[in-house]
Amino acid sequence: MPRKYRFDPSIRLNPRRWHLPVRNKRCCCIFGGSWCGICKHTSPVIHRLHKNGTPVLAVALRSGTADDVRAFLQQQGLTFDTVNDEHGALSQQWGVKVVPSIILIKNGKVVHGTTGLATYWGLKTRIAIADLLR
Question: Hey, which residues does 14 pair with through a beta bridge?
């Protein structure tokens, strides 16, 4: 994964600009796809984290146009910020080969990454550990 993280706001689905948290803050970044069966089980877990105050940024990998992704998010009731990676360039830049890939970032650095099915409490535990790290 790249050492410097930058998300291009021009490809965002949400008009609000998104910044990675800095200085003792952490966020959860998930790479997934509307076509991914496991992602359909993991996305509600990520949404619950988002609703409970964890900053979340999702990257929709090869999930169609921005309108397709918006429709999918609305259909699923997902309200976290999402970037459309229509052609996979951002995912390739991050070295993502498997979805869902869930990455915890703190102070601009990756502190944990996991792939596949994840539970709410499993991720909450990982986030608590990340919060203890410098």
Answer: none
Host H or E run for residue 29: strand 26-32
Peptide bond into 100 cis (omega under 30): yes
Q: What one-letter code names the amino acid at 8? A: D
Tell me the two tokens of residue 34: 């509307």
pLDDT (average), residues 1-28? 51
Buried b (16+ CB within 10 A) or exposed e, 94-130: bebeebbbbbbbbeeebbbbebeebeeeebeebbeeb
Q: Measuring CA to CA, how many Å separate 91 from each of 2, 25, 76, 79, 120?
A: 11, 23, 22, 21, 24
pTM of whole model > 0.70?
yes
